[in-house]
Predict the structure.
Amino acid sequence: MRKIYLILLCCNFVYAQNISIEKDTILIGEQIEVSISCNLNKLTYWPDIEGIISQEIEIIKLSQIDTSNLNVTQKALITVWDSNKYIIPAFTFSENNVSDLITLYVQDIDIKDTDTILKDIKGPLDDTFKKTIKNTKNQIIKWIIFAIIFIIMTYILYMVFLKRRLVRKSEIHIPAEVIAFNRLSKLEQKKLWETGKINEYHTELSEIIRRYLEARFKFIALELTTDEILTELKSVINNDVFKKLQKILERADLAKFAKNQPTDLQNLESMSLAKEIISSTKKSENE
């Protein structure tokens, strides 16, 4: 059993000339107010409360200085966290006006005779209380089971939806000619040869054509030389398309190795020939 003895103190203020506290004895952590005041006629300077009060005394809140009623007043809400005797020092307002010291006593909270405070809690619990506990447990178990089932069902539905979405994505096929035309359009927008980047222009144009041929005719065009590509396609495409392709690829090779600098007309021609090759060799609707 536990008995807690709290110290009962009177509410009368403790005064010391220009300083007052609510009481001179408190418990650890208890908050009290300290009031410092001085008549304007007796005031030369106002003391620094935070600098004067001991660091062992915690100032929780410090009010603004009040100058009403011909008195200057300031209040501080303080507390202490260790049992001991503490001195609130004197405050100087002028050479002839100094407050008295105030002693503050801080006491522990006594915890004694616990046997006399706690009652015997042994014995049978009330049937209604037991039923309430049992019903609560049952409800909690039901909600846990429901939550598990909900999570499992949500996961299954998510996986089914994700699988269908992936299947749909895989079913979407963009024709090789559409991809190639888009890339050619982006290349034109870059205006590479117009800004002097002729080598880059022909290199990218050659790569677009090679990627198209690789997707359209199912061979590794990106890894083959110009001659190897032409040999691969000689029996597949007609002679007109073959010559156009040969011109584009060989011109790109010459520009790449700086053996020839294509003119503006040749730069435009290569783009036009590339579009013609794609249009002539794209898959028909029957394929």
